[in-house]
Amino acid sequence: MTALEYRTIPEAHLERALDLHYLVFLQKDVEDEPRKLHHEILAHCERIGAYDGDELVGLLAAHPLKLSVPGSELPCAGVTFVSVAPTHRRRGVLSGMVDELWRRCAAAGQPLAALWVSETGIYGRFGFEPATRSYTVEIDTDRPLELRIEPDARPLRLVAAEDAPTVIGPLHSAARSERAGRVARDDFWWRTHVFRKDDEENDELSPPRVVTVGEKGAEPAGYVYYRTMSDSEGRGTVHLQELEADSPAAAAALWRYVTSIDLVDKVRAWGRPLDDPLLRLSADRDQVRITQEFPALWLRVVDVPAALAGRAWSAPAELVLEVTDAGLPANAGRYRVSVERAGDGFAARVSRTGDAADLTLDVRELAAVYLGDIEPAELVRAGLVAEHTPGAAELLGRASRTGLLPHTTDEF
């Protein structure tokens, strides 16, 4: 066997990269427009190729993202298009590409990496762990949706998809500042990932529909983005993509709207946060059903001190964390985390130390608690985190707790 070489995939090889990706994911006859979109997206990514001589046998791309973390945002490599030729499986191709990714993250100052998994058994061994979770919610609309509060009475307005980023973008930005795990959206991202025109996976759905709450000319108090699908008998389903609101009343108005659309029997909302107010607003929980809970964004802490110092904290703490990291040995070690008052909140100073550890955890468990999704004490009870100092897990939990659970709305 020839030695594999890992290098940047040039733009001249993008079509070869797409062919490899379609081969691995069992896709055929990808139409021109979706292929053009994939080409454009891949061109905007950092691209790592595994080459066997001149043959491209592996592909890993990474979006240069800004991910919201508690109280801030950090650069993040958004991993996507991961593909290994079936002829080169079990030869360490993926491991080699991931090692190259870590080198590039360090060079680019990206302390975090994230992805959506196609197979959950693969990425834990590379240090990734679910850091946000979501619900799928279904609402039967054969009767009016009963709510426990009065909906916002301001008018509802239909917004053209091409105008939507300008109209609802500020509200999305405000919402991501309140929740960790969300991607910053520029014009490219709105066009290629949110309101993409050529989506071969959803070709039976209507074009995007966007409705806002608020007076004309004023910033909206909320918005809902959805698509619809009708069956052979003309009965429809609303596929709710996003719903954001700056108040419970505005959220109630939008939920009332989507559940009152004519000819619709069901609203299916994929990817709602676990603390969605809808679950409290609804007066009849038999009408609003949670049909699925699933891990959403998988996170990898690539630079432990930069990640810990780059987020805000919620309470003072003094802890020594011993982090294990088989994939990035330079990342492993003991870190003193000193969380102190800074302005209106708390910030951490992080430094290497030889002092005894209060907690020992793998980089996977660090990712699980980093955005505020999982309480450290839960991982101690599961045997995944070792608590050497009684109460250390609870102290870390108080210091890292967030007002809202992290939630991810953008797949990539």
Automatic annotation (TrEMBL):
Residues 4-150 form the N-acetyltransferase domain. This is Enhanced intracellular survival protein Eis. One of its GO terms (molecular function) is acyltransferase activity. Signal peptide: none annotated. PROSITE patterns: GNAT. Gene3D superfamilies: 3.40.630.30, SCP2 sterol-binding domain. Its EC number is 2.3.1.-. The keyword rRNA-binding does not apply. The keyword Acyltransferase applies. It holds the Pfam family Acetyltransf_17. It comes from the Bacteria. The active site is at Y123 (proton donor), F412 (proton acceptor). Belongs to the acetyltransferase Eis family. Keywords: Acyltransferase, Transferase. Homohexamer; trimer of dimers. SUPFAM superfamilies: Acyl-CoA N-acyltransferases (Nat) (SSF55729), SCP-like (SSF55718). Acetyl-CoA binds at V82, S83, V84, R90, R91, G92, V93, L94, S95, S118, E119.
